[in-house]
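Lab notebook, bench 4. We co-purified these components, and the gel suggests they stay together. Before we commit to crystallization screens, I want a quick structural picture of the whole thing.
Request: model the full complex, all chains together.
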Amino acid sequence: MGSDTCFIKQCKEKIIIKKIDRIKMEKKKKNLKNVIIIDHPLIKRDLTFLRDKKTPSFQFRAILRRVAGLMAYEITKDLKTNEFIIESPLEKTKGYTLAEKVILAPILRAGLGLVGGFVEYLPEARVGHIGLYRDEETLKPVDYYFKFPKNIKDAIVLILDPMLATGGSAAAAVTFLKQHGAKSIRFASLVAAPEGVRTLTEMHPDVKIYVASLDRGLNKKGYILPGLGDAGDRIFGTAE
Ligand code: PRP
Ligand code: URA
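Here is the predicted assembly.
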């Protein structure tokens, strides 16, 4: 093969590789398009305490609750309001109520650790519970409980779970909720792996995913890296 032909072949290969990289990048962007990373100094600081393996359960719980409150503030900033007239001690003025009903949906067990922080800002919210655990061998979700308020189709359902790892539990929770009529679903988690975001987005492209951090990936056992370990065990002290 002459040097000219060789040069043309190399150029063609480079163009193909660039094209593949572009397609991969577009696919990656598409799969991450539903993620909203809540980038806030107070959350970053608190997440540091939660990641630290020396943080004991009682502090872990309190900090998780505080971060949940900060996340609730961000996740609800586009909720609609209804106006009405109230009277201040001096004159009439406009007041507001939330126009949309919110149902909080913690995934048991670890999602319970986020409920306190959310209800502090959403005292009118109702709470449904989704019982799911991840089988340690298969990493597939196993369901054991589902209890929800009525009329979930009219509400914004906010699924709470500090960890989005393979995405199996999150995707199963959304499927359950849709089967029960939910039309508007958001997912809130503290730490997510790109694998989980991809799975959830592929299965449920209509669900917005709010996270405090998008971590590097998963280890062989399906734990998020760097992550914060087993969230349920750290909240409830069940590893001790
Ligand atoms: C954890 C976590 C999520 C799930 C995430 O729960 O709270 O629900 O794992 O993993 P996935 O994205 O790979 O499905 P776990 O199964 O440990 O149950 P627990 O909270 O009852 O301990
Ligand atoms: N569940 C957890 O609690 N932690 C992980 O890192 C992954 C799944």
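The CA atoms of residues 7 and 195 lie 39 Å apart. Worth comparing against the SEC data before the next meeting. The radius of gyration is 22 Å.
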